[in-house]
Amino acid sequence: QVQLIESGGGLVQPGGSLRLSCTASTGAFGAYAVGWFRQVPGKDKEQVAAISRSGTGTYYVDDVKGRFAISRNNAENTVDLRMDSLRPLDTAVYYCAARNTPLTDDYYYVAPQYHLWGQGTQVTVSS
Asked: What is the DSSP secondary structure assignment for residue 52, as one 8-state letter?
């Protein structure tokens, strides 16, 4: 069973930056599309970014465009989410999710279409 492990969360001041990493326990992570989601208590998970298995296709929710950047290194089985100009409303638990897509380079899937999820990492933006 493939496992996803997120890292890089923490406490940061408004305007600061963090880099989240999602590391997979498979050497075939290049066959997976990956999404980053966030969730605050009482609300559904919100997808903030996604990337195709090749890395050529990306998606960002409007609220993070120009501030967040998703990238991947298939040789190292990682997908990163670089977050700049962080705001208090970015505070949430961030999850990475993956879907095996060996026959397509699509990059946008909704939450139920991902079948692998990490345990989440807390991001808190506060002064």
From this structure: -
Q: How far apart are CA 47 and CA 97, in angstroms?
A: 10
β-pair partners for 58: 51
Pairing, β 4-7 against β 18-24 = antiparallel
DSSP secondary structure code for residue 116 in this structure: E
**Integer Cα distance of 107 and 42 in angstroms:** 27
The residues, ordered by sequence, that sit 6+ positions from 99 with a Cβ below 8 Å of its Cβ are 32, 33, 34, 35, 109, 113, 114, 115, 116
Q: Give 97-109 pLDDT, tens digit per residue.
A: 999 988 888 999 9
What contacts 112, CB < 8 A, 6 or more positions away?
none
Tokens for 112, please give them: 């139920």
CA triplet 19, 79, 74: central angle to 5 degrees?
Answer: 140
> What is the per-residue pLDDT across 8-24, written as a single tens digit (0 to 9) for each?
999 999 999 999 999 99
Q: Write the CB contacts of 66 (distance below 8 Å, at least 6 apart in sequence).
A: none
